[in-house]
Amino acid sequence: MAKAGAVPPSPGAQTATTKVHEVIKQRILDGHYQAHEYIREASIARELDVSRTPVREALRELVSEGWLEAIPHHGARVVAWTEKDAREVFELRVVLEPMAVRLACENMNEPCLARLRKIADRMEALTERIETDLGIRNEIALLNHDFHRELIQASGNQRLASVLDSVVRTSVIRRNFGNYQLDNLRRSMRHHREILEAILAGSPTWAENVMRAHLLAAQALHVQFPDTPQT
Question: Is residue 230, in this structure, part of any structural domain at all?
Fold first, then answer.
């Protein structure tokens, strides 16, 4: 319930905040803003011809979503994705996400399965254009996020979904296709398709194992493993 006397934000203010939010986020995706680069409130306000209030709100949202980090007395800067971050995220995902997919297989309904198929179809089509249109990587990454989110939500376990949502930050998922070559992407798409086949077949174990293989393959592209000792 809103506090007595509180004035709700005007639609114009909300629109301005959304505009600033999307511009900054897209620039991070495009590499216009680099890791550890500060986003200056005053310069953004001047450039986009808005007041500093929606810029301030947009920066707060981007910090909460993991795109930016707030540095005391300095402002907000672009978060750097380190190997340590990748290692920690994949360690958790490899344990939790196969569990979520097993539950999703047991609780799947036709509307959700139809949405997953539609996303998989679109990603597969885009993958075949990756070598001629470099900007497609961002769209594939957004769709990939939607695919995994749909599966996690379909688990029906809201605590598990909440934990995974905090682990698999949007900033991680949307920027993790830079390391993928065409063969890597095709393999990833095959994994998605096989997960759907396992769900259609009603085999939670199959779906769980494919998701684990899918994540381990992604982990190998983002985490440098120590050299294996020669035997």
Answer: no
Number of domains in the chain: 2
The answer as to whether 1 is a domain residue is no
pLDDT for residue 8: 45
Residue 41's domain comprises 14-78
What are the 10-residue block averages of pLDDT along the chain, 231 residues in total?
A: 45 76 84 88 94 95 88 90 81 94 96 97 94 82 89 95 76 58 93 98 98 93 58 35
- What is the DSSP annotation of 91-144? HHHHHHHHHHHHHHHHH--HHHHHHHHHHHHHHHHHHTTTTT-TTHHHHHHHHH
User: Within a domain: residue 5?
Assistant: no
DSSP string, 57-92: HHHHHHHHHTSEEEETTTEEEEPP--HHHHHHHHHH
Q: What is the dihedral of CA 134, 192, 145, 200, to 10 degrees?
A: 150
Q: Give the full edge-to-edge strand order of the sheet including 68-71.
A: 38-39, 75-78, 68-71
Q: What per-residue confidence (pLDDT) applies to 4?
A: 46
DSSP 39: E
92 shares a domain with 42: no
- Residue 150's pLDDT is 94
Q: 112 and 88 in one domain?
A: yes
Q: Name the pTM for this structure.
A: 0.71
- Domain final position from 78, 107, 133: 78
Give domain status of residue 3, yes or no: no
